[in-house]
Amino acid sequence: MTNHYTTVLKVELDWGNEVYIGHIEKTYSDGFDLILGADICYHQSTVKPLFETGKALMELRLIGSGKFILGYVSLFKSNDIIVNVKV
């Protein structure tokens, strides 16, 4: 009988912070199967760093082997345009 174990980690992401991203890349060099964010886009200025951070961390894995899922509910029309462009 083979046992398969899954490890679930909760890691804070300080998106846009290159030093912090470098630390995450070194600590979790195999990358992530899933990066999940929900209700985290309140200001236009945070959208670009969020997606850049997600992209950098997804690039630690083979293309297509990880997922970056953002749960987004439209609260501010000005953010909708930026989020839709990044997606």
From TrEMBL:
One of its GO terms (molecular function) is protein methyltransferase activity. It comes from the Eukaryota. Transmembrane segments: none annotated. InterPro entries: Methyltransf_16, METTL22, SAM-dependent_MTases_sf. This is Uncharacterized protein. It comes from Physcomitrium patens.
